[in-house]
Amino acid sequence: MKRITAALLALCLAAAMTLPVYAAPPKAGFENFREINTYAIDSFADVSGWFAADVASVYSLGLMEGSTDENGERSFRPGGKITLAETVTLACRIRSTYLSDGAQFEQRSVWYQSYVDYAVEAGILSGAEEYEDYTCAATRAQFAAILAKALPEEAYREINAVEIGAIPDVSMEEGYSFSVYKLYRAGILTGSDGAGTFKPDESITRGEAAAITARIVAPDKRLSVALYAPLYVGFTMDNSNQGGVVITGLSMTTEGELCYLTMEFKSQTSRFLSIMNASESLYILKVVVIDPGVEQFTFAFPLSALKEIYEASSDPAKEQIIMEFYASGDPGSVTDRFYIAIDQFSKYFAEDGETDEAEDAE
User: Fold this and answer.
1) Which helix (H) or strand (E) holds 357?
2) CATH 1.10.10 assigned to 231-349
3) How far, in Å, CA of 187 to CA of 156, rounded?
4) pLDDT tens profile 116-149
5) Residue range(s) in the chain whose domain bears CATH number 2.70.50
6) Whole-model pTM above 0.90?
7) From start to end of 121-271, where are the E strands?
8) Angle, to 10 degrees, between the axis of helix 140-147 and the axis of helix 84-99?
C-alpha cells in the first residue's frame, strides 16, 4: 500500500511540473510610460519656448517623432499642422503603452492603416470611414475627440469644475462637445484665454499637440481651471414701460475678479442706464450713456462689489439689483426699472466648506 501511495504521489508531482505556467497579464497604468529615446538639448534645431519640455517628454516616451532633412538636420516642426493620420497614430501609441498590450503596428502601403485598424478595434474611431481623408490637417475639435478616447475613463480623472455651457465656443449639440469637456475637466485643456475659448474649427500645431499629450500621459502636469456657464438671470419690469424698453437677453459671467453683466435691449426714449442695489443705501455700480442705435451693453465691475451687496442683506434670497433706464442724467427721470434677484449670483460667494461636487472630486 505504501508503494502505491508513493507512486501516486510521484505521478501527481510529475503532472504538476508539466502544467503550463501563465504569466500575470500586464497591468495598465501611467507607469508604463517609460523613456525609450534619449532627448538632448540639440535633438531638434527648431524646438524652444513654452512647449520645449513637452516635446522632450513625448519624444523620449516614443509618442511623437521628428524628421531629418537632406542635410541631416533634425527638426520637430512645432508650428506645423498635425494630420488626422498622425492624430490617430498618437492616440494608438498612448493607448497601447498605457495598456501594455504589445500591439505591433506594421508598415503597409498606406503607412497609417494599422493604426486606423487598431483605433477602430479599440473604439477610438467608430469606423475606418469616420474621416474621409486622413492626410488632411486635424481641427482642434477632431484632435480632442480622438485623444479623449485614447485611454479608459478612469485615466481622465476630473480635477476641474467646468460647467456645461461654460466653454463659450463649444455647442453641446456638436458630437465632439463631451470629449472637449472631458479634457477640460481633467486639466488637459484649459482654453486659449480667460474665458476658456476652445477654437474648435482651427487646426492644431505639433507643438500644441505635444503639450496636450504630455498632460495626458503625466497627470502631475495637468492644469487647474474653473469655468462657469453664463448665468441667465431672471428679471421683472414695471408694467408701465414708459421708455419703451424691451430686454431680449440678460446674462452674467465672471473672469478673475471682474463681473460682466450683459444686456441686449431695445429702447426708444431712454438715454442713460445704471445698475445699483435695491437696499436702503443705494450702491451704484455704474451709470452709462446709451448712444442712439446701441442695442447691447456690458457692465464691468469688481466681483467684490456684487459680493458686498450680497453679504449686506440679511435675506440674500430677497435682495435685488436694480437696472434703471432714464431719459436724462437726472435719476429722477427714470423711465423703466428692472429687478434682478441677487440669489442668482449666490454660487460665486459660497462659504468655505460649501463646495460643489467637482471641488469634492478634486
Assistant:
1) helix 357-361
2) no
3) 9
4) 999 999 999 999 999 999 999 999 999 999 999 9
5) 231-349
6) no
7) 231-232, 235-237, 246-255, 258-266
8) 20
